[in-house]
Write a structure and sequence with these properties.
Blueprint: H1 9-20, E1 27-32, E2 38-40, E3 43-44, H2 51-57, E4 65-70, E5 76-82, H3 87-93, H4 99-106, E6 110-113, H5 117-124, E7 130-133, H6 148-159, E8 164-167, H7 169-177, H8 181-204, H9 211-224, E9 229-230, E10 235-238, E11 259-264, E12 266-268, E13 271-272, E14 275-280, H10 287-306, H11 313-330, H12 336-340, E15 380-383, E16 386-389, E17 394-397, E18 400-404, E19 409-411, H13 420-427
Helix pairs in contact: 8-9, 10-11
């Protein structure tokens, strides 16, 4: 019995078929797992699988390699290489997945041990003209520490310089961006757990609690309800901390009259939820808090209505920026003169709204993007405008998870309370 939901192998089979249909004939494609990174002398950081490999196979363990062989006539063979169980390590860490388990999870029939990969590669690679390699091309990618795929790119290009090298990442990213129906259902499952967590928070939050107590509840309830863990480190930001976009300390006491910004989600079946809500610690917003909250909520609702297939993200962000600008004038935070005198490269609203409105959501919380910049049907996005007034210790960000449909958007997180009057009603009826 698995602690977490086991996704059907048909999902991974379909993902591989979609990818292979985009690859050239006379090619070999190689995708490696991530490394295990040491945290101290005898401890490692928790393992995080290469998301592309996870999306293609469902195998969530290190030292795993996926290989496609596509001959000149388009015939495809697929192989997966995994670690065999080391009896000595098994005493400490348990068994690795068996070959039959790997076949059952991934749907790949040709399963080999990682020890055989090098000889397999030498035997086969010169049969093919093209080598497809995976590389982290995410806009936020860091190159300070190379992952295994990035190191292998350097290795293969040095070892096989006369081959034609091709990029897998743009192809996989384009496919991953448009979600299959089953992927959407898993994201909805993650959202159901997230709703249960938020409902519980509204029952218990009160002045005198510490931010980390709410963080502990988020983590506990996620794991208790079958989540793999938090989608990311929860943000529980009371008072002035609500103006810190990625506040992480979660160490301060929640005070009477303050708001608390809650940004969290769960990872369920490899897929993530991501919401942000703002609640009054004492159960009632001040007039000023509610004014700022209502402004952000109105911007969010208009932003979601604006999104539809074939809109560009540039148009979308400009639309949201204009809305924020109008709201800041209404809130007496900027003036019309400020707007007239602003630089187009540095709009005045950026003082109170510093980030973009949306990011993609899926296997990664900030899921892969493609360079086209066009909204596509089947994409899952967050919608999270905000206004952060540091001088008043009021930071409001409201975040929903939305699906792009043929007609516009479906709010996947619509069941999670967001209306300020509704939130006050729930908190004052406990």
């Amino acid at each position: 019995m698995s602690r977490y939901p086991v996704l059907p192998k048909e999902l991974f089979i379909e993902n591989r078929q979609r990818l292979v249909s985009l690859l050239k004939q006379d090619s070999i494609a190689i995708i490696h797992s991530n490394y295990v990174f040491p945290a101290s002398a005898d401890e490692n950081f928790p393992f995080k699988q290469n998301s592309d490999l996870l999306w293609l196979t469902g195998i969530n363990q290190p030292n795993t390699t996926l290989v496609f062989l596509i001959d000149k006539f388009g015939s495809v063979d697929e192989y997966i290489f995994v670690d065999k169980t080391d009896p000595n390590l098994a005493v400490w860490e348990g068994d690795k997945q068996t070959m039959d388990q790997v076949r059952h999870i991934s749907g790949i029939q040709n399963v080999e041990y990682t020890d055989n990969f090098d000889s397999f590669l030498e035997k086969n690679i010169f049969r093919f003209k093209n080598i497809y390699l995976d590389f982290n091309e995410h806009l936020r990618a860091s190159r300070e520490i190379l992952n295994q795929n990035e190191k292998k790119v350097l290795c293969y290009k040095e070892k096989y310089p006369l081959h034609n090298f091709e990029r897998l990442s743009p192809l996989i990213s384009e496919l991953r961006q448009v979600k299959l129906d089953f992927e959407i259902e898993i994201i909805k499952d993650a959202i159901r757990i997230t709703k249960d967590i938020f409902d519980e928070i509204l029952k218990i939050i009160r002045p005198g609690m510490y931010e980390f107590e709410i963080e502990a509840l988020i983590t506990y309830m996620g794991l208790k309800n079958g989540a793999y863990g938090n989608a990311f480190s929860p943000i529980v930001a009371g008072g002035i901390n609500s103006c810190i976009l990625h506040y992480q300390k979660n160490e301060n006491v929640l005070k009477e009259g303050d708001i608390v910004l809650l940004d969290f989600g769960v990872n369920y079946g490899f897929y993530n939820s991501d919401i942000t809500r703002v609640v009054p610690v004492s159960g009632k917003f001040t007039e000023r808090q509610k004014d700022i909250y209502s402004a952000v909520l109105d911007v969010q609702r208009q932003a979601m209505a604006f999104l539809k297939p074939d809109v560009t993200y540039e148009e979308y962000e400009k639309f949201v920026g204009n809305l924020i600008e109008e709201k800041l004038i209404e809130l007496d935070l900027i003036t019309i003169e400020d707007v007239k005198n602003q630089s187009p490269q540095n709009p005045v609203y950026r003082k109170y709204y510093m980030h973009r409105t949306s990011h993609f959501l899926g296997i990664d919380v900030h899921d892969v993007n493609v360079a086209t910049g066009i909204v596509k049907v089947g994409t899952v996005l967050t919608c999270e405008p905000g206004i952060y007034v540091k001088e008043e210790a009021i930071g409001v960000r409201l975040e929903e998870d939305i699906l792009i449909t043929e007609s516009g958007t479906e709010n996947l997180t619509a069941s999670i309370p967001i209306d300020p009057d509704h939130i006050e009603q729930i908190m004052n009826s406990r």
